[in-house]
What does this fold into?
Amino acid sequence: MKKSFQIGSAFVGLIVGAGFASGQEVMQYFTSFGIWGTVGGIVATLLFIFLGFNFAQLGTDLQAASHKGVIYHIGGRYIGAILDILITFFLFGVAVVMFAGSGSTFEQMFGINTIAGSIIMVTLTILTLLLNTQKIIGIIAAITPYLIAIIFIILVYSIFTTDLSLAEADAIAKEQASAAPNWLLSAFLYVSYNLAAGAALLIVMSGGVKDRKVAGWGGILGGIMLGGLIILIHIGMFMKVDVVAGMDMPTLALAEQIHPFIGILMAIALLGMMYNTAVGMFYSFTVRFIAPDSRAYKPAVVIIGLIGFAASLVGFTTLVGKVYSTMGYLGFALIIAAIIAWFRRGNTRIS
It folds into this structure.
């Protein structure tokens, strides 16, 4: 169970990223639908559990060293190739966004120059990727409990200090910008968007596990923790929606309202999530082309990291931002392929 928890925590650590931890994604995909956003969070939780379990077991069954083998296995020669290209591009793009985002956060919270902040994140990412796979997974997994603790503090504070009735909170929440026309499509889009990148690392992590039951439980625990965080953040922001409405970083605003020290802890959590995501994305991207035990791996990590840093300076993040919502819809193909593979393999239980 310890190994399963580590896999699940690393899966969570990769997906939460900056937008999730800041509350911005949860606001757009769930809280903006008011009370129905809670139902959307439950739907997303169930999807993350099922798909996390499915991809984890596929990774173990195929002993995957990268996402390529599993994607071709479930998508076939042609659809698999398209999904492989999209996922690989997305892995690199999101990591670049984390470099740029960390620079902005360092400047906003600690007064460090934007470029200097990005260099710090790039350096930490490259140094981490020079470690072996198990150490990388362990580092990513270690930050997740810290984030859960901070979010729980914010939730308790929000519940006990809210001045709004449910009807008032619902009305204000529905005035916020939404990522989709309705709560159900939004929940599916959120899972699809995150799975496009998160599945890659989950497959790689599970590929190093011999016991498919251990891998399967890792996917399930990851899905439960992800869903739990979504619902906790959603409820916390919903109860204080009059405070966080229109904020770029809603959870940070709530944390600072509790106490400046809690705000600093939340800022550290945000940077930790950016680091997690950058490490996970770049690792999955690199091993797509070069095996981690290859002599070319370490030089490739340095070169790719520097290219990513350069891309974060020349406006590449703007390009990636424009394709985020599109990736959500394209990710449906990945979900459908995974479900078909599930029935084809005849899996009805954890084994």
The chain has one domain: 2-340.
